[in-house]
Amino acid sequence: MLTLDTTRPLMRALLLENIHPDASARLAKAGYEVETLSRALGEDELAGAVRGVSLLGIRSQTHLTERVLAAVPRLAAVGAFCIGVNQIDLAAASRHGVAVFNAPFSNTRSVVELAIAEIIAMARRLPEKNTRMHAGEWDKSAAGSHEVRGRRLGIVGYGNIGTQLSVIAESLGMSVYFYDIADKLAIGNARRCSTLTELLESVETVTLHVDGRDGNRGFFGEAEFAAMRPRSLFLNLSRGFVVDHAALRRNIESGHIAGAAIDVFPEEPKARGEEFRSELRGLPNVILTPHIGGSTEEAQQDIGEFVAGKLADYMASGATSLSVNLPGITLPAVPGTHRLVHLHRNVPGVLASINRVLAEHGVNVEGQLLRTRDDLGYVLTDIGTEYSDEVLAELRAMDVTIRLRTIPSA
Length: 410
Ligand code: NAI
Known about the structure:
By secondary structure, the protein is α/β, with parallel strands linked by helices.
């Protein structure tokens, strides 16, 4: 069990892996002493560097293991300044009471803009025309080139990216159809399809924006390509493993699919310079990009601000909305109170026990909110500023307590 005193005047944040400078600026503004490093750290180096640090920022190359988490009891929260959090042992973070935040939609717009650019580029057969021009060949023919206005776009996976693409595609005059396994509100004039086959048979361009759940492995293969209308266009900017690339190649070679734009691959080079291998290399009217859908300076900046903001808010008010591992709570501050931030094991009766301790010491509750998630319970309690250390000691001593901290109101 840990107790963190956030009333200490200077708290430290460590940001690794070249996180956008806006993150440092945001944390410095919130009163943190911020140290930055351009590289990732290995386990031992990381455990040493994080000692005495309250907030840690990483991207995809730093692995946060149970061993490191166990060695850095002051660490309160971790920001993954990216989308994925596979590099963090989330169960261990929860066990040690460390909140984890990421940026689930900071690069949504970037992916959408790339998809739109590729839809237009393929409809105009730009990949081929560009290649021919570089080879000295001048061909002004309009054959096979189309406007996207009035054409039907099928979006598979109507989440953050799918819905935003829906709006922008409609503003270009496209008719949007979508299919999602979950019930989703149709935005604008988009039409919901009740099956994937219905969508594939309805549209001339199919774009995948499904998430990376295991069940989506290989979910788009020969049968799905066969169900598409002849001479359709196909895009995948979601996950590499959802598409059977051998089947896609066959369908491009046969002419059934007139063009494809692929940003994600079942196997991607781990580092710059490593050869990119794919059965899709060398095909006409196929745009291949190295998983850059979300890679823009704007997205990096937004990620920096967004995640740093989540970390600062968590420390200042206990807010956990959009936390990857803690129950989500936001409770407006009540002036003239202190906030008790209590993370505990999710077993029945904890709230009653907390309130019994408070009542026994004559402490009045001004506001309180509890949420649970899996094995964790999280409760914010606003109390008057007059209370003894004994109150905190008793709350700390509860055997369900994982972490307790107090936040004075602003
Ligand atoms: P999201 O979680 O907001 O939306 C995914 C949607 O797909 C959900 O509505 C879900 O119900 C639906 N879905 C899942 N499986 C499905 C299936 N088999 N059939 C139909 N619908 C299905 O995710 P978001 O933020 O829109 O991202 C979408 C994808 O884009 C993710 O796989 C993400 O990893 C990827 N991505 C790729 C980037 C790139 O650089 N190329 C950058 C950012 C995200």
